[in-house]
Amino acid sequence: MFDAAREKTRLWLLILIGVVATLLGQTHAREIFAPSPDESGEIAASTPASTGEFYDGDRYDVPDSLLAANSGARWNNGWRTADGKFASPNGAGRSGAAAEQSVWDAVAQKPGWSVIEGQVGVRNASGQLRYYDGAAVSPRGRVIGLEVKSGSATKTPAQRAFDSGVNTQNPAIGVGQNQGLEIGRSLEIRR
Amino acid sequence: MRSQKEIKADLLAALNAVGDEAFAGMGFKRRKGSLDYIRTIRDAQQTIAFAVDWLPKYQLGEELHLHPAMHLAMKPVTEAALRLVAGNKMLLANAPDIIVNQPIEFTAPKSEHVRWFASGFDQMKAKVAEIGVFVRKWVIPFLDELTTPDDLIGVYERADERIMKQRHWYLFVAAAHLEKGCKSEALAVLEGNLGAPGLRKRYSTAFETLDPKQ
Q1: Residue A96 scores a pLDDT above 90
Q2: Higher model confidence: residue A113 or residue A9?
Q3: What residues of A are in contact with residue B81 (Cβ under 8 Å)?
Q4: DSSP assignment of chain B
Q5: Residue A169 and residue B58: Cβ atoms within 8 Å?
Q6: A33 or B177: which carries more pLDDT confidence?
Q7: Which of A44, A90, B93, B133 has the most Cβ atoms closer than 10 angstroms to its Cβ?
Q8: Residue B184 contacts A, CB cutoff 8 Å
């Protein structure tokens, strides 16, 4: 019985050594586990595709292959414009720049629905301030705060906390140019 | 890129150059440095507010997005509404003076809706002039029908789609009835629109004011 167990362990060890040897034969372990640009926020200098394409070897410089279709947008701890603002890699302008307008258009197309365009400022019962990316008005007059997210963007913890506390019994109240507005619900829309 | 202060100065200059005259022709006046045009007709104070998003992130390259709103206030209705909710302003969205605050586009068919972006003084002048034309065509005919508590009741009764009907809108309609001394009509408005169990609980003060037996 002990012989069988020892044989089984030896077999597993051999498999493990074989796998490690194969991996080492293909590339350096550091490359395998190196974070992708998405994770690290910088371009790993050791990736074969990027080697030799740097302008001056600076690790934050970007090879041509990593310049976006959006002229001027380049990878620098996320796709960014030359002045450091987040940008869309695929189109002109800033990340999500056109997303709000396309959401407003989509809501307005629904029969009976209307849109309050522009930023909509509201406060909740505890006085916290939140700006929505516009608001949808249902045919029955209910106002829904819109949070438009594009790409992989997600709500911040503060936005999530605010939205979870808003309901029809406990609405957020409009402030400033949105006085008189009651938002009883919010909706995150991905574009 | 210009600062918000510089852009606002241009907008105010544009309002001064073309807006003031256009809106004066419709009975509105603007205080110096203000973005609001106000007129008073009978019981109503009506405002066209030039709501602005400065340097909008959703339209890069433009300095501002004008999305004007119309406000309606009626002092007698506000006073009655506050009596109705026993002074609890939160039931009136913490803005008892504002019966309606909605984008001016709501008064027009969707096919007429416009997005007004502008950069620089000349564009701002052109957009302000366009807005003046829009207001004259679509907003004024509606505002002319909203000058007394009776008008408010009329808009409710004909289910006019040009007005945004949030829940507290029905409190203001009930208040318009109350202001005329018509408690039963006021109660009927509440029963018809805020009578569901959850809503009745939230607006219980208003129900109790009109019918203490409830």
Answers
A1: no
A2: A113
A3: none
A4: ---HHHHHHHHHHHIIIIIHHHHHTTT-B--TT--EEEEEETTEEEEEE--EEES-TTSTT-SEEE--EEEEEEHHHHHHHHHHTTT-GGGGTT-TT-SEEEEGGGGS-GGG---EEE-HHHHHHHHHHHHHHHIIIIIHHHHTT-SSHHHHHHHHHTT-TTS---HHHHHHHHHHHHHTT-HHHHHHHHHHHH-SHHHHHHTHHHHHHH-TT-
A5: no
A6: B177
A7: B93
A8: no
